[in-house]
Amino acid sequence: MFKGIIKWIIFAIIVGVAVTFILKKNDEKPLVLSKEPDLGKQAENPDVEQQVMAFSIDGSSSSGANQWHLMGESAQIQEEEIYLYKLKAKAFGEKVVVDITSDKGIYNKTNGEVELLGNVKVVSDDGTTLETERAVWSQVTKEVTTESLVRISREGMTAVGEGGMANSDEKKAILRKNVTVTMEPNTVVNCDGILEIDYNKNTAVFFDNVRVKDKEGVLFADKLTINFDPETEAVVQGVAEGNVKVKKGNSYTLSEKAVYTESTKSAELLGRPRIIIDPEELAELEKQEKGSFQPENL
Question: Distance between CA 129 and CA 113 in Å, rounded?
C-alpha cells in the first residue's frame, strides 16, 4: 500500500517536470498572467505580452516516444510568469500514465517553480488519485509541496493529511500532520504528526499519538514503523514504540515496544510488558482512549 502511495506521488512530480519543460520552450516569449486577470480587459493591460487561447502542446523523447501532453483553455504571457487556465496535462512514464488537472497553473521563470491552484487533481492509470487545492513544484529542489489538505485514494485505501511534500530525487513523501489512513475492510490509522514514506528504505513511519484500530482491537504508540516488501508491496513488519498500549476487549497490555511479524502472524511485546487488571487503572485508560478518538484527534 505505502509503496503505491509514493509511486504515484513520484509520477505526479514527473508531471511537474513536464510542465516546467514545456513552459521553458517559450523562453523567447516568457508567459505570465496578472494575479487577478480580467480576460475582458487584457488588451488594456500593458504587462500582458501575449494572450493565447485554447493551446495544446506535445513533447516527445529523442526516440520519438510521447512523454507529455499539455493543454488549456487560455494562457497569458508576462515578463516573469506564465499563467495557464483550466490546465490539463498528461505524463507518460515507463509503466504508469498520470493525468493532472487544475483551475490555474503559474510558471515562474525566475525561481523555476510551477504552482497549481484550485481543484488540483492527479490521477494515475492504476486508479490512484491525489486531490488538493494548491501545490508547488520546485525545479531547484525537485520537490512538490503543499500546505493544503491532501487526500490520497486508491482501491481499498484512503489517506488524508494537512500539508505534504514529495521529493523525486530522494524518493520520499510526507503528509505533515493530522493524518488518517483508512484501509478496507476495517482498519484505521491516525497520527497527530508526520507520516513519512521512504521508498529507498521501504518504510512508512507514523509519528505522535499514533492510533491503530481494527476488528482485533486498538493499538496506541508514540511512533509506528511499517516495513513493506519492495516487490509485492505487502507489509512485512510493524514496530510500535513508546508508551505502547494494546486494547483487546476490556483488557489492556502496556509495553515500551511491540513488534508484529507478518510471516508468523505473531506479536512480541518488549520493555517490561504488563497486563492491566486494576479497575482504577482500567478506568483511566478508557478515559485516555476516548480522548484519543475525539473528532479533533482523528
Answer: 23
Question: Which residues have a Cβ under 8 Å from the Cβ of 232 and sit 6 or more positions away?
Answer: none
Tell me the mean pLDDT in the region 44-58: 65
Q: Name the average pLDDT for the chain.
A: 77
pTM of the model: 0.76
Which of these, 96, 76, 78, lies nearest to 15 by C-alpha position?
96
Res 48: pLDDT: 56
Beta strand ranges found along 28-184 (DSSP E): 50-60, 66-77, 81-92, 97-108, 113-124, 129-138, 143-154, 157-167, 172-183
Cell of 13: 512530480
The pLDDT value recorded for residue 291 is: 59
Q: 81 and 117 in contact (C-beta within 8 Å)?
A: no
pLDDT by residue (tens digit) across 171-204? 788 999 999 999 888 889 999 999 998 888 989 9
Q: Where are the beta strands (DSSP E) in 201-289?
A: 203-214, 217-228, 235-248, 251-261, 266-270, 274-276
What backbone phi and psi angles, to 5 degrees, belong to 200?
-70, -35
Contact 143, 165 (CB under 8 A): yes
C-alpha cell at 172: 520520499
CA distances from residue 127 to 124, 133, 138, 204, 228 in whole angstroms, order as listed? 6, 20, 26, 21, 20
